[in-house]
Structure formats: C-alpha cells, structure tokens
C-alpha cells in the first residue's frame, strides 16, 4: 500500500456526531482515505460496563452515526474487544494516522495512552483534540494550584477563562472512505454487539427518545424555540417538560456543548445564563473525576467510607427501585426512570435523598441502579450527584437537609400532574391528598378506589421517624471525625 493510499483512522468514542467533530474534521480535510471506527470495549481493565439503558441508546446512536457518515461518503466500522488488541491488529493492515477526541476518565485515559504508545512504536501519527467539554479539566484551575472543589468559583473562573472555540460544521465530503479491514474483533454488524434487550422492555424509550445527531439538534431547537425563556422557573416544575432533555445526547456526544453554547449565545437573560451554568456542572464533574479518579465508588470525604449504612432487605430495595415506597412523588420518579430511561432532575434529588437518608442505604446502591436505568448515565455526573445528595461529596448538601417528599411534591407538583401520570392508581385523588394519600379521609379513598396497602402501598417508613433516625446517625458519624 502506498503512503498516499493508507487510511487515517477516526476513532469515535463519546462523540457520535459529524458536527463540531474535530477529529473527523481533521481527517476529512487531510484529503486522505478515512477509516471511521468504533470499538465496543467492555473488557479492558477499569472500564465500567454500560448499563442497559445506555446500551439501548448506544445501539441507536451508532446506527444513526453510520447513516450520517454515509451522507458524506463514509461508513462506520464496528469492532469489539480489548481496544489495544483491536488497534494493534488494525495497525498491522497499514494505517497512516489515528485521530480522536480526548476522554477524561482514568481507565479510558490509560487505554488511550497505551494506544498512543502503540502508534508511536509503529510510526503512526496520532492527533487528539478537545471535543466533549467546554473546558478541559486542567484548563480551569485555581491560581494557587490544585483543582476547584466548589462549583461557584469554578464556574466564575471558567467564564473568565474566555469563550471556547466556535463549533465546526460538518466536514466533507470525504475524498475516499477506506474499507474496514478484517481483523480479530471485527468489523462486526451492529446487531452482533448485542446492545438491545433480549426481552423487549424498551417501548417507553423508543416512544420518548430519538438517539443520534438529528434527535439532538431537534431537542436543542425545541428548547430554544419553546423553553429557554422560562427555563429558570420551569426546570423545577415536575409536570412541565421545562428542561432541554439534552443529557443523553450530550453523554454520547451527539451534540457538543460548544454547539449548545453557541446556539444559546444569541440569547440573553437569566434563563440562558442558568442553562449555561448547568452545562458548567457537567464540565465541573468531569474535572473532579479527572482529578480524583476513584470518585465513582469512593466518597470524596473519605470518612464516609466508615458510615454505618443500613443493609436494605431485597424487598425494601425493590420497593424503592420499582416505585412502591408509598410516597407518591418518589414512586412517580422511580417509575418514570423505569419506563422512559430518565427522571426529572428535582425528582432525582428527592428519590436519591429518600434512599440515602430515609432508608439510610449506601449511595452506591442507588448510583448503580441509576447507572443501569438512565439513558444519560454518566461516569462523572451520576456518582458526583449521588455524593452531593448523600453528603459525602466535594461540596455536598448539608447533612441535616433531608428532603421531605410530601412538601417537595406539594411545592413542585402542586396539581399532582406528575404523580398522576406515573402513578395512575392515584390519578383520581384530589390535589389536597395526592402527595399524602394516607392522610385522606376514608370516604375520599373509597370514592377514588384507593385501598392503601392493596391498590397502592402504605408509606414504607414514617417520614418524621426516618428523619430523626437519619439525623442521629449522621450526627453520630460526624462526632467520630
Ligand atoms: P437541563 O436542565 O436541560 O440541563 C442541561 C444540561 O446540563 C444537561 O443535559 C446536563 O448535561 C447538564 N446538567 C444539568 N444538571 C446537571 C447536574 N446536576 N450535574 C451535571 N450536569 C448537569 N446528569 C447526567 O447527565 N447524567 C447522570 O448520570 C446524572 N445522574 C444524576 C443523579 C442524581 C442523583 C442527580 C440528583 C442528578 C443527576 N444528573 C445526571 C443531573 C441532572 O439530573 C441531569 O443532567 C438532568 O436532569 C438532565 O435533564 P436535561 O438534559 O433536561 O437537563
């Protein structure tokens, strides 16, 4: 093979798009043949296997990326297995260069470093780019060194750091798409990755989401057209779809945060600023995990590793997971998650707080459940939000803040629209009782066919008692510090 005909690999990872895709852009504009690959690696050391909802999303996102690449004369070739072995095999087929956008988690960085070494040894040029964050973890740091542990100063510094690069458009068309060389590990057909569920539980996901770049752009357009002006207030209303629903698209890189910010910059106002800051949380968590790589499983405040969590019975855990706690807003959230692979942000806080404070369970149990069931399950955002709620995070909720599921429901879902949607057995209860059916007079319950303990569970714990128990345990723990 002549040097001119040897392909450059574009290695797609958490950046499954054509727009603002620096690695793809560089490869296509080089004029060389381009070989677009994705390696499904669940076996390399330290890689966290994807949860079921993320696997579903990835399947559709890869299909969409392949369709998109074909519009510029390319194709996506899929491989599976240990990344280093797949790349080594590909290099033996004659490769000119390798291009990718950087990742920030420890195991993934280790893999990327090993791949870069491999390429260097083989004389294959490597170029890497920034593609999935506004600022890389080492860009926004305190003047005194180290890293930010609190969001507000981090975001202030990030904003002062200046604008990010403007997003790039779609490159192409490709001079030539290289054929996928046959090596161990692939190419394989998408179905061979086995990402879709064997028994079909994904109807709700299919009805709710459109994975892929087009779906991401449509979600952004809808948000800018109809929601951004009222985002600051509507994002907390449970019965209103007031947020962007961009999180799984961002998680899989179907849209870049730079594209979102660029689209937002044409708007001014407190809602747009609030929304930009939410994207800042995403970068902040990515940076924290970069600087403290064990945060997915270990508390930021190490003393919490000694916290005497309660061991939940399988029945109690199942009641939380499947929305049978007897607290309507908690149950609505957990059922929303199970049905459509997402949960309203405020309800994520309420349900997480219920698990770690009302039930005194280890936050990692809840984190793992969310990891399996959320379409946006993110290696940094998920554990760090859990740690925030559990009180063991970098800048956590004060330990004495225990979300009251009744008051939260009454405040953020005053007409019960959210509960009625996901807990239909309570749909006919008057607003006054929708968040506390156990207080409803018996004639009201009879009228709406609710039999507590039969058609809907009685509360699995008493809020007031659970609160006192949690405060005692947390206070005693703090005294040992
Ligand atoms: P919007 O309100 O429209 O926000 C825009 C974007 O900002 C989001 O898409 C997301 O990328 C980012 N963002 C918003 N809030 C946060 C936050 N608190 N932390 C980090 N980034 C944020 N978010 C995930 O992306 N993946 C997770 O695995 C995840 N797990 C969570 C677990 C718990 C216990 C809690 C309390 C929150 C979690 N979040 C997670 C944060 C938040 O709930 C979601 O990002 C948000 O609900 C997604 O909806 P949206 O895209 O409509 O958000």
Question: Over all CA atoms, what is the radius of gyration?
Answer: 24 Å
- Encode the helix/strand succession as letters: EHEHEHEHEHEHHHHHHHHHHHHHHHH
Overall geometric form:
globular
Major sheet attributes: 6 strands, parallel
| Count of discrete alpha- or pi-helical segments spanning 4 or more residues | 21
Give the structural class: alpha/beta
> What is the beta-strand fraction?
5-15%
User: Mean pLDDT, nearest integer?
Assistant: 95
Q: Would you count the extended β strands for me?
A: 6
What's the N-to-C terminus distance? 66 Å
Helix content: 40-55%
Spans of 5+ residues with little confidence (pLDDT < 50)?
Answer: none
Ligand species: flavin-adenine dinucleotide
Cofactor: (6R)-5,10-methylene-5,6,7,8-tetrahydrofolate; FAD
GO molecular function: deoxyribodipyrimidine photo-lyase activity; DNA binding; FAD binding
EC number: 4.1.99.3
Enzyme class: lyase
